[in-house]
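Q: What would this chain look like folded?
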Amino acid sequence: MNKEVRCFETGIPIKIYGLSEKSVTITFGTAIDNDLLHLITDFNQLLLQNPFSGFITTVPAYTTLTVFFDPLSVMLSDLPGEVCFEKVSAHLHKIAQIKREKSKVIANKVVIPVCYGGDFGWDLSIVARTNNLIETEVIDIHTAGEYVVFMIGFVPGFAYMGGMDTRISTPRKEVPNAKIPAGSVGIASNQTGIYPMETPGGWQIIGKTPLKMFDVNRSQPSLLKGGDLVTFKAIGIDEFNAYAEI
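A: My prediction, written as structure tokens:
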């Protein structure tokens, strides 16, 4: 079951399809870029400001927005349609017709301290060799960039960040590591990311941050969220330990 509508202002076709009896997914495009990120973010914000009866939450991704709802509440609502998909799609169509105001939201900027190489970044040498660089050049390039958080996924708090310099682009490992420590900073192709908890993973690990990327005791458990702008700052082991003691 799927439906295609067009955003009022952009004219971009968006496709809505049923994911389960409790969710639908909206596809906004196929390319991962900042314009699509802004479109998804704006649509999500409009939906959060104008929820339908039975709405639960949304999950943004690179090119999609998944909408979760309570089927019983949706069926008891006065939304047009015979089934949940039709009713929810009708509301999403209305959201797509709302003229977007120029975004007044200033992106949240976050600086992430990282201790690169050594026991914290055992794949730094691989990234360097792959790109015909020395390790300090990899660090300089990685810390010079500004990265956009496109989505949170894989595990809670794992931020997928785009905007990385292609000079340090490195493929994922063919055989993933069984355990990647929490706080590890990795590279996979043209993306960089931070493991918020110990988990298996196949990214090339170049360093580690002492910051806690995910904490259920915080009002916003994930330190990063979609749309944030991130920069990395190289620190030494003494500064790393000082952060960890806070």
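The CA atoms of residues 33 and 159 lie 15 Å apart.
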